[in-house]
Every structure is written in structure tokens, then in C-alpha cells.
Specification:
Strand order of the largest sheet: 4-5-3-6-7
Distance between the termini: 101 Å
Order of helices and strands: HHEHHHEEHEHEEHHHHHEHHHH
Largest sheet: 5 strands, parallel
Shape: globular
Number of strands: 7
Helix content: 40-55%
Radius of gyration: 27 Å
Number of helices: 16
Mean pLDDT: 84
Length: 461
């Protein structure tokens, strides 16, 4: 009798334990299914160790990740070729954005900047420790100020303030507050993404890649193209190219960040919006362009850019900053003008000299994040190569291009060594961004294929 009861108790314990274990398995599978749904049902399978070795030995640094997608016309019937993305365009736009790949491709292991001129090890990437935006005024504070302005101006709504200069200032402040807040949210979400997956027993998502070179029978970028013209980085020449290519249709040039009274003109620029505006102009696009826009910019050797900017101001009496440059030595100008202090960082971050005369570590991280989000970046010192690449990314094909079309090159005296070193010290963030842009530039060449690129380059006189 005792033996029979013991056997029954043992069987009962085994049944309960099995049921509990089954519930754990079901719960774990449920978590994986939920993640799969959130990532649009992208396949999450780890390759074997042998497969990882095969991929890591590939000659192309762009292909040094887990997934290889054959992007030729013979695979149109492959149901998995988009890896859960809505369509080919969505997958392509994801792949062209370097922020999804900078930490898993081999470009990060190479230095492309002139190491004779810049000892890159001196310029370490600062660590971002701040978790939340401290930008002031906040979005809520700006909204309250807009409401007060509506009351004081005795109007019924914001639209009636479209030509009000105070309203313009408040709108830009709100836009920048929103952009800074969005950056911190996105940055820390991406930062903790892998940790969250591992903590919850889920295989981390690995970005898919395309087999290179891509199909280049049509331009890779979708419009409108948002071309951020950083001062003294060959933006005028680029504008001439875009204006001629699109024959003036759907093209607009801006000299500052647009105010609400020009939003309508911006909405009509279906092809290119080029100008001296900071990152963030996508926030004012009409809804039909918010999913198709492509950011683009041109970066320049930081020391050369600062030298060019200083002498440009000194030699243009109609320039707003002419007087400061004309009455200052180069050293004094570096101390007094924000244009000589990480200007490329400031533009890419989305902030202006009014918010920060000298960019901070947080500003640099915003600029780096935004740069990596761009689908194309040109290099001023490699202008002809940039033009060759634009054939594949935009469709522009110009076989007769001059290095610069804006004005005759300004001759200036040789800059002393101590001034050059002072420029480097004040532009440490720009130096790091320039190196990152060079990595992106090499990746862009690999995406279209080096043979295709060289053939196009040889056509340019």
C-alpha cells in the first residue's frame, strides 16, 4: 500500500514538473513570436561558426555580416528576398543608411584620413552619458509661448501668425527641442536594443545586406533630396548640377532654415531642397515626402574648410561676417567666430550658434548620428569622384565638370603652423566626423561596384 502511494506521488510530481517546463517553453516561444512581429517578420537565424568564418573572410567589407540577399532581376520570385521589409525600396533605404551597419562592417577597422596631417588617435570619440534632453525651452514651454502670442496678437490660430517674426523664432525652437528629444530617445533605444534581446532570451536582430554591386540601372536614392550645404564645401557647384539635371523643376535653394512663410515653397520642391539649413528640415515636409526623402551633404577637410571660410569673409564686403574677419587676425577670429569652431558638427547636429557657440559632446553625438543616417555623403577633396557616384545615386551625369563654379579661388598667404594646430584643436569633432564621412564614401563606392565607379570616373574630364 505504501509503495503504491509513493509511486502515485512520484508520477504526480513528474506530471506537474513536465507541465511547468512546457509552460516555460510556450512562454519563451511567445516572446520570440512577439519580437518577430515587431521586426516585420524578419528572419532571425544565426549562421554556423563555419559560415561566420566564410563571411568574415569576404573581400568586400560591406558583406561582412550575416545575411546575403541576391539583388538581381532573376530573383523576383523569391518571397524572402525582402526579409520582411514592405518592398524593395524600403529594404534599399535601410541598407543605404550607414547607422544600421557602422558597427558590423569592416570600414570601422580602417583609417582613411590623411594620417600625416591628422594623428587620429589624438581625437577620441567622447562618451555620451546624458540620458535625456535638457534643451530649453522645452516643447511644452514653446507651445505655451505660442498660445500667449496668439492671445497678444488677437488672432484665432497659428496660421494667422505665419508672417510674424516672433512666431518664426518659436517654431524653430520647438522644432529643435523636438529633434533633440527624438535623438536621445532613438540613440538610447538603439544602444540598448541588443542588450534587451539578450536579457529576454531573444536572438538579436542582425541587419540584412545586399549582394554587391547593387542593380544600378536606376538611381538608388528616392526624392526629394535634402542637400545640406555646409559652408565652404562646394555646395554652389552641386546646386548647379542639380538645377541642370532636373531642369529647374521641383528644385529650391534656401539660404537659411525655412520659416513657416516659405513652407509652401518647400512643399513644392519634389526633387531637391538645397541650402544652408541645419539637420531637421524633414520635419516640415508634407506627408507624401516624409517616407521618401533622402538626406545628402558634402564634407571637407576641417582645416582647409576653416581657412577657406576665414578668407572668404575677409574678401567679401557684402558678407554679414566680413567686418569681424577683416578686423581680426586669424587667431582672434578663431576665438570670436563660431564658424571656426566645429561648424560641420553644428550643422549636422541641427543646432545653431544661437543655441551653442561651441558644440558639446552631446552635440557631437547628435551630428554623428545624423551623418550616419544620411544616404549619401560627398567629399570636397574628392569632388570628381563624388560627381561620378552621383550618376548611380541620383542619375546626374556630367562629363565636363570644373572643380568649382562659384568664384575664382581666393589666394591667401601661407597659414602658419601654430594657426593650423589651433584650428585642429578647435575642430576636434569635425575631424572625427570627416573620418566617418570618408568611411561612408568608400562604402558608397563598394555599393555601386568599383569597376562601375571607375568607368564613370574616367568619363569625367
Amino acid at each position: 500500500m505504501f509503495r503504491l502511494s509513493f509511486i502515485r506521488l512520484t508520477l504526480l510530481i513528474l506530471i506537474v514538473a513536465s507541465s511547468f517546463y512546457l509552460l516555460i517553453i510556450i512562454n519563451q516561444n511567445s516572446k520570440i513570436i512577439k519580437l518577430t512581429t515587431k521586426t516585420k517578420e524578419i528572419e532571425l537565424s544565426k549562421p554556423s561558426i563555419q559560415k561566420q568564418k566564410e563571411i568574415s573572410n569576404t573581400a568586400n567589407p560591406c558583406e561582412n555580416i550575416q545575411y546575403i540577399i541576391n539583388n538581381n532581376n532573376n530573383n523576383n520570385n523569391n518571397n524572402n528576398k525582402n526579409y520582411g521589409f514592405k518592398d524593395d525600396s524600403s529594404l534599399l533605404n535601410y541598407f543605404l543608411t550607414y547607422k544600421n551597419y557602422y558597427d558590423i562592417e569592416d570600414y570601422k577597422n580602417k583609417i582613411y584620413i590623411n594620417q600625416t596631417k591628422y594623428r587620429l588617435l589624438k581625437y577620441s570619440v567622447p562618451k555620451l552619458t546624458k540620458r535625456f534632453s535638457t534643451f530649453t525651452p522645452t516643447i511644452q514651454e514653446t507651445d505655451n509661448n505660442i498660445k500667449k502670442l496668439i492671445v497678444s496678437e488677437n488672432v484665432t490660430d497659428e496660421y494667422k501668425l505665419i508672417y510674424n517674426k516672433e512666431y518664426h523664432k518659436l517654431v524653430l525652437k520647438k522644432l529643435r527641442a523636438n529633434m533633440v528629444e527624438e535623438f536621445f530617445d532613438d540613440y538610447w533605444r538603439d544602444f540598448h536594443k541588443s542588450k534587451y534581446s539578450l536579457d529576454h532570451g531573444i536572438v538579436p536582430f542582425q541587419p540584412p545586406t545586399l549582394k554587391l554591386p547593387l542593380n544600378i540601372t536606376k538611381p538608388l536614392l528616392t526624392t526629394p533630396i535634402l542637400y545640406m550645404h555646409i559652408p565652404k564645401c562646394a555646395g554652389h557647384t552641386s546646386y548647379v548640377l542639380f538645377e541642370n539635371y532636373f531642369r529647374g523643376k521641383g528644385v529650391i535653394q534656401l539660404w537659411t532654415h525655412p520659416n513657416p512663410d516659405v513652407y509652401y515653397d518647400v512643399s513644392k520642391a519634389s526633387n531637391v531642397i538645397l541650402g544652408h539649413y541645419q539637420y531637421g528640415i524633414h520635419k516640415v515636409l508634407p506627408d507624401q515626402y516624409k517616407k521618401t526623402y533622402s538626406y545628402m551633404t558634402m564634407l571637407r577637410d576641417p582645416v582647409d574648410r576653416v581657412i577657406s571660410h576665414y578668407y572668404y569673409h575677409r574678401n567679401n564686403a557684402y558678407d554679414p561676417e566680413y567686418l569681424l574677419a577683416k578686423t581680426s587676425t586669424f587667431s582672434e577670429w578663431l576665438d570670436r567666430s563660431p564658424r571656426g569652431n566645429n561648424e560641420m558638427t553644428r550643422f549636422l547636429s541641427g543646432l545653431t550658434k544661437d543655441e551653442e557657440f561651441k558644440p558639446t559632446d552631446e552635440t557631437f553625438h547628435m551630428a554623428l548620428y545624423h551623418l550616419r543616417s544620411m544616404k549619401f555623403v560627398g567629399i570636397t577633396e574628392r569632388f570628381k569622384e563624388t560627381i561620378a557616384l552621383l550618376k548611380f545615386y541620383v542619375g546626374i551625369e556630367n562629363h565636363r565638370i570644373r572643380e568649382k563654379q562659384n568664384a575664382a579661388k581666393i589666394k591667401h598667404p601661407e597659414v602658419p603652423h601654430h594657426i593650423i594646430e589651433a584650428i585642429k584643436k578647435r575642430n576636434n569633432y569635425d575631424i572625427l566626423l570627416y573620418e566617418e564621412a570618408l568611411k561612408m564614401f568608400e562604402r558608397q563606392i563598394d555599393i555601386v561596384g568599383r569597376d562601375n565607379f571607375n568607368d564613370q570616373l574616367n568619363k569625367i574630364l
